[in-house]
Amino acid sequence: MACRNCAPLRLAGRLAGTNARPVGGAATTSALPQSWRSTCRQNQRRMYSFGGEPTGVKDKFKIWPFVAVIAIGTVGYVALVNRRKGMPSSEGAQTGSQMPTAGNPQPIPTPTFSPSEVTVVFVLGGPGAGKGTQCSNLVEKHGFIHLSAGDLLRAEQERPGSEFGDLIRDYIKNGLIVPKEVTIKLLENAMKEALSSQAKAKAKAAGSATGRFLIDGFPRKLDQAYSFENTVCPAKMVLFYDCPENVMEERLMERGKTSGRADDNAESIRKRFRTFVETSMPVVDYYEKQGKVVKVDATPAPEVVFVKTQGHLKERLGKDF
Questions:
Q1: Which residues bind ATP (predicted)?
Q2: CA distance to 66, 129, 134, 257, 313, per residue, from 301 (Å)
Q3: What are the angstrom distances between the C-alpha of 33 and each of 25, 28, 38, 43, 269?
């Protein structure tokens, strides 16, 4: 019976296939038995299935591209986030650092100098606290090497052909902190130069030890402190000259009459005060927790402050410091 039924169906299929467009589909199969007509209609639907899918199937196919796009975007975003968790900062990328992996761990930076080679004393205080005056006295009386971060930056901005000159000038004028990479590199180069044979000979002739640095006005931010200690040398101690803001402002305004410094004006001075409180005081707190900070009242006359400074250094570095 199955084979006999198939023959008319095949014939009906061929006839349907030869007609460009059947007219009145029901009429073409009306002469067939009821069971054949049903089977034939099923066959015809199969033959034209590419043009007659149910609505639900079409909708599914229309939605799938959007689902695929969303899935690809989500996977890409998650991959990017996971990758950036292990990526170095933009600064590290500029210096050519690589992402740490199991087979390629991130190298730990080795400081240029060890504490056995040099003694570093950070000298901190607000603008006008008298840091430079006290450092000059320590150089004269005790043979320290004085490096002023501010002086180095100002010299660099005036140096012909300096690639950082304009950048430094803009930062100083606006009372902002110059990027740490610039300042740290200038300090490191100055330390190397000071420790050269000529500097050692001068220090030896003066009867004092070499490699003792007073770094004035630095670090002014925590990231500067971290970077300097990791790449240049850890600090032995911190001299912090504490002075009221109104006293410092009065000193700076008086100094501005003869200093010729672009930042010795009322607007820049106030910006520098705000910057110091917001960014430099956390540095003092950081070293204070390590027991490295010596606070000196910088309000009295410079000679009185110097006597106090010497007393603190004797306690920390020894009587012959």
A1: 128-133, 255, 300
A2: 76, 11, 11, 20, 19
A3: 15, 12, 9, 15, 105
Could you list the residue range(s) of the whole structural domain that residue 9 is in?
Answer: 2-19+27-48
**How many domains does the chain divide into?**
2
Identify whether residues 8 and 141 lie together within a single domain. Answer: no
- 35 and 157 part of one domain: no
The whole-angstrom separation of Cα 311 and Cα 34 is: 118
Cβ within 8 Å of residue 227, ≥6 positions away? 180, 181, 184
Q: Is 8 annotated for ligand binding?
A: no
Q: What is the pLDDT of residues 49-99, one digit of tens each?
A: 444 445 554 555 566 666 665 666 665 555 544 544 433 333 443 343 344
Quote the DSSP letter at residue 49. Answer: G
Return the structure tokens found at 106.
């991130």
In this structure, what DSSP letter does residue 276 have? I
Residue 69 marked in a binding site: no
CB atoms within 10 A of CB 109: 12
pTM of the model: 0.62
Residue 132 among known ligand-binding residues: yes
Residues 168 and 273 occupy one common structural domain: yes
- CATH number of the domain where residue 181 is located: 3.40.50.300
DSSP letters for 64-108 = HHHHHHHHHHHHHHHHHHHHHHTPPPHHHHHTT-----SSSPPPP
Q: Tell me: is residue 255 an annotated ligand-binding position.
A: yes
The answer to whether the annotation marks 169 as part of a ligand binding site is no
